[in-house]
């Protein structure tokens, strides 16, 4: 299986980086794995359209072709990111805006969006500080990427692993979380 890991974190000295390494180390060697590190890539997350850059042409913008090709190549996409202000980092939001475009990732049908990315699945891994029992009652915390973005584009199943209390939990708890990630990655 072709697996694309999309890592969105400003550096490699973080708990998110520990998650990335655990995923990379535990995926079966039978898979083809590509890691897209949006900060390292210096991805430009700003979506622009104007008189010379038409909105209807977004799905064929040459700068984004590399990323469209990676999404097309992938059978399974793993997202790793921290929750910032209840949602995904602006860098990842910009990536979604610029790459998951109408005509490429979906089109408009009579009864809503038609997803073009059927046959792919995804795994979202997020970290945050809010206690776990509160997040079902708060908007987003990964739910937008799962339900509004990926599922709308035809990607399913989408699973979501959340680590609550990343900064204020014990080392032991964080170790258990990494073990859980290792087990899931190993089972893909
Ligand atoms: P780090 O800060 O890198 O590490 C967390 C802890 O894990 C540290 O104690 C570190 O020493 C330890 N650690 C590092 N590596 C390992 C390892 N290999 N094994 C074991 N332990 C390790 N949180 C919310 O709940 N809701 C919000 O809306 C929200 N908004 C935010 C907005 C902004 C702009 C920012 C910066 C933070 C926000 N946060 C929010 C908190 C954010 O979600 C957490 O800071 C983040 O998820 C922690 O992940 P990290 O990779 O940055 O952890």
TrEMBL record:
Classification via SUPFAM superfamilies: Flavoproteins
Domain Flavodoxin-like fold, first and last residues per copy: 1-180
Entry's Gene Ontology molecular function annotations: oxidoreductase activity
Organism listed in the record: Veillonella parvula
EC number(s) from the headed UniProt entry: 1.-.-.-, 1.6.99.-
Descriptive protein name: NAD(P)H-dependent oxidoreductase
Keyword tRNA processing: no
Coiled coil (UniProt feature): none
Pfam families in UniProt: Flavodoxin_2
Keyword terms, alphabetized: Oxidoreductase
Presence of the UniProt keyword Oxidoreductase in the record: yes
